[in-house]
Amino acid sequence: MDNSKTFWLPEKASTFVDTVDPAFDLYLWISIFFFGLIVILITVFTVKYLRRRPDQLATAQITHNLTLELSWTIIPLIIVMGLFFLGMKGYLHMRVAPSGYMQVNVKAQKWSWGFEYPSGAINDTLVVPVNTPVKLVMTSRDVLHSFYIAAFRTKADVIPNRYHALWFQATRTGIFPVQCTQYCGTNHSYMLTAVKVVEQEAYNEWLATASDPGKGKTPAEFGAILYQKRGCSACHSVDGSKAVGPSWKGLFGRQENCGAGGMIMVDEAYIRESMMVPTAKVVMGYQPVMPIFKGVLSEREIVALIEYIKTLK
Amino acid sequence: MIAHVHHENINYLKASKGLKNWLVTVDHKRIGMMYLASILVFFVTGGTFAGLFRFELWSPLKNFLTPDQYNQFFTLHGVIMVFLVVVPGIPAALGNFILPIQIGAKDLAFPKLNLTSLYLYWIGAAIALYSIVAGHADQGWTMYAPYSLSRNPSVLWMMVAAFILGFSSILTGLNFIVTMHNMRAPGMTWYRMPLFLWAMYATGIMQIFATPVLAITLILLLMENFFGIGIFDPALGGDPLLMQHFFWFYSHPAVYIIVVPGFGITSEIIACFAKKDIFGYKFVAYSSVAIAIIGFVVWGHHMFVAGQSELADSIFSFLTFFTAVPSAIKVFNWTATLYKGSIDLKTPMLYALQFLFNFTIGGLTGIILAILSVDIHLHDTYFIVSHFHYVAMGSTMIAFIGGIHYWWPKMTGKMYNETVGRTAAILVFIGFNVTFFVQLIMGSQGSPRRYYHYQDQFQIYHQISTVGFVILAAGLFMALFNLIASFFNGSVAPKNPWGAKTLEWEEADSPPVLYNFKETPVVTHGPYAFETEKA
Ligand code: HEM
Ligand SMILES: [Cu+2]
Ligand SMILES: [Cu+2]
After folding, report:
1. What is the CATH number that goes with domain A219-311?
2. Burial class (CB in 10 A: 0-12, 13-18, 19+), A89
3. Cis ω before B511 (30° cut-off from 0)
4. Which of A207, B148, B170, B399 suits a disulfide with B265, CB 3.0-4.6 Å?
5. How are beta strands A126-129 and A192-198 bridged, if at all?
6. Ligand with the closest atom to the CA of B67
7. Measuring CA to CA, how many Å separate B481 from each of A86, B44, B421, B431?
């Protein structure tokens, strides 16, 4: 598929292109037809019936013709009703996000955009995975703004004291401008950012880094933070007390009784496996309730958590 | 008897002399001329601001205006052009002058009210300009809250101005409607009224019903400002969308207040210069009225991305499509009127034909904006800017200028230079379309409106547009100087230079006497009762 811009429309990068562009093109041809018809008729009549003698009169006075008048009432009516349904159908699709979307909260203010991810990441450009529905829940800290991505054919006003949502699904990777289209004062035209569409893995990487509250810390320190932020603390203690899951105190190097799995020496590989596939080896005396963290924790986070556990002697 | 010259039988320009006599006149013709002069002054002023920021847009970086100056200039341009030029324009200037003569009356029903409306117009204009300049207002003519509220008291004064100007419009509309109901000459039945009058009638209705909404908005703003009642301001718990609803509830009908008078002029000119009865007179007459009525229920189409419910958006879209149908009917009717006519491409006719061309583009670009899914993309881009310039400038102002040329011999008693007039008309046509057609492409490519700084890819469009502006301005000044020059050295206009069939041409002198007619005319035929060539 050719994603580059055409004479009329900008480059294409979201599923809405399939909704908007065909409607635009169809309408363009309808317009060209009617406009051409009018211009040709005017030209032909003007040339043909041009006054050549000063006293020349009209050759006929035709004041009405019911068939003609009804036809140019009814035909346009039918056409515009068709256009209405076409537009409404596309529009309802554009307004209702499909289930399974990923949500990002958007905060607009004079003259910048803030994007807040559920993971806690906060960024000034919007980074999203390709081929995934993304829903933006937007609000403004001051005046009206409007969030517009031309390549995605979507736009919505951002309103103070209100949440206004918009969704899209990017169809290819790339960087596309995000512009403010509601006048908001001096630097309205500089209220510009970008949406960066990346592959899912790159997105996960990015999200991990962006969500990185452990920036500038050792892996072990970062692991301590993740222990809290990732919710491990809900089930694992670090002081030896028993909770939903085994305590991490003195875990590294310990011999663990995994029932049918036999006695196991806790090392890096085992800890990693416990996070990725917790049910692979379930420790005796515990229920297999540990959530799967595969795809949630980044490589960096896994390492950090392992390093943290190692320090808990 | 011989030596005694009746004061009433002197032409209205000479009936009395001196500025003071003009300022206290109740003669609809003089009031019309004063409106015309004021409106043209504002048109040139508004156009000058447009020129300034068009040159600023020559490149995406700073040329000679700061962002704040740019924003203030487009605000000045928009407010002047909308509230002081195109909304009052045709009715106040040409309507005032022509309407009573076309129905065979001596004056409007309430001449003093008419003078009052002129003074209200001047007061409103002064307040509007003062508030923008003194308040450094930059909120645009749309005045959306809460940004505009941060510009107080400027926005309050702008509302006061809009309210006073609105009142002026209401008085004019009321005056016209009463006059048309009560003062038609013997034999002037409704269906013998020229289509210009039907257009004035439809406009009058809209002025009377839409404008009070401005007053309500003003009162609400005042309550918010002085008593801290949260209405529009989210900081006080108000709803900024409400302000948009109020604004467009007035301003959408206002766009038809703007364009319907242009329909009227176009009908007159086409009939006269094709020597043809208008095809489908009743369709054309009633479609103006239909537009006036439907125009009241479509305001929400300006708010498709503003946060309305899906249901509201769908209903507004649906209704908007119905305004397209009467507009289409008119274009087809005017085109059909040319068929088998005797077409004379005089200056007014050149403007009427450009009107047809531009209005077709303006209407077609309006319909695409009513297609919900597509409007999400086009809203608040240059596409919108282009659309409404095709209707407001390309249609209404073009019809206005055509009308001025058409009635100039009647109003001033002078003929302008036809060659210069036509040349100017052609320059205006080229200039206008070069300026605004590229904006359609720029807009659908995704260039937002009200942008001081823009992406490099749009530079070429901006430059073409600015070149178009220069051509347009050249054409407009040429037309203006041609008209002004005719005052001094134009040949004397005959009573009916175009061979038209309406009363102002057949019965009134050029220029008309003080009370328009020496004796009350009796109407015996329709407005476009042209004969046919004998075979
Ligand atoms: C064929 C009939 C027309 C239709 C269907 C139509 C439709 C529309 C729509 C849907 C919009 C809103 C677009 C948006 O903001 O996203 C719009 C904007 C506008 N239209 Fe039209 N329109 C028509 C004729 C006119 C006429 C005759 C005028 C008169 C001068 C006019 C003046 C305007 C103005 C001033 C705006 C927007 C201004 C702004 O946002 O600052 N339109 N039109
Ligand atoms: Cu903005
Ligand atoms: Cu509208």
Report:
1. 1.10.760.10
2. middle
3. yes
4. B399
5. parallel
6. 2
7. 50, 13, 10, 18
Task: Tell whether B59 lies on the interface with A, counting CB pairs under 8 A.
Answer: no
Nearest to B306 by CA among A178, A160, A191: A160
Domain of B86, in residue numbers: 27-506
**Count: domains in chain B:** 1
Ligand 1 centre distance from Cα of residue B370 (Å): 9
Tokens of B249: 């509830």
C-alpha to C-alpha distances, A91 to A22, A152, B310, B371, nearest whole angstrom: 13, 14, 9, 9
Which of ligand 1's atoms lies nearest the C-alpha of B364?
1
Q: What is the CATH number for B458?
A: 1.20.210.10
Tell me the pLDDT tens digit for each residue of B16-52: 888 888 898 999 999 999 999 999 999 999 999 999 9
Return the ligand 1 atom nearest residue B141 CA: 41
Distances (CA, A) of B382 to B194, B374, B514: 37, 14, 48
A2-52 pLDDT per residue, tens: 888 999 999 999 999 999 999 999 999 999 999 999 999 999 999 999 999
Tell me how crowded residue B298 is: count the other CB atoms within 10 A of its CB.
23
From A6's Cα to the closest Cα of chain B, the distance in A is: 9
Q: Is residue B449 part of a domain?
A: yes
pLDDT at B3 over 50: no
Nearest to B321 among A81, A156, A186 (CB): A81
CATH number of A102-210: 2.60.40.420
Nearest of B454, B328, B322 to residue A81 by alpha carbon: B322
Give a yes or no: residue B531 inside a domain. no
Our CA angle for B398, B400, B402, nearest 5°, is 70
Three-state DSSP at A108 gives strand
Residue B127 maps to a domain: yes
Q: Does residue A185 or residue B125 have the better pLDDT?
A: B125
What's the gap in Å between the CA of A18 and the closest CA on chain B? 11
Prediction ipTM score: 0.91
Whether residue B218 is contained in a domain is answered as: yes
Confidence check: pLDDT of A288 > 80: no
Is residue B46 within a helix (H) or strand (E), and if so which, with residue range? helix B28-56
Q: Do B446 and A87 touch (CB under 8 A)?
A: no
**Among A240-244, A245-249, B387-391, the least confident range:** A240-244
**Half-sphere exposure (CA, 13 Å, Cβ side) for B459?**
7
Residue of A nearest to B284 (CA): A69
What are the counts of helices (DSSP H) followed by strands (DSSP E) for chain B? 19, 2
Return the residue matching tokens 């309050």. B156
Distance from CA of A99 to the nearest CA of B (A): 18
B357 in ligand 1 pocket by Cβ < 6 Å? Answer: no
* Whole-angstrom distance, CA of residue B251 vs CA of residue B83: 10
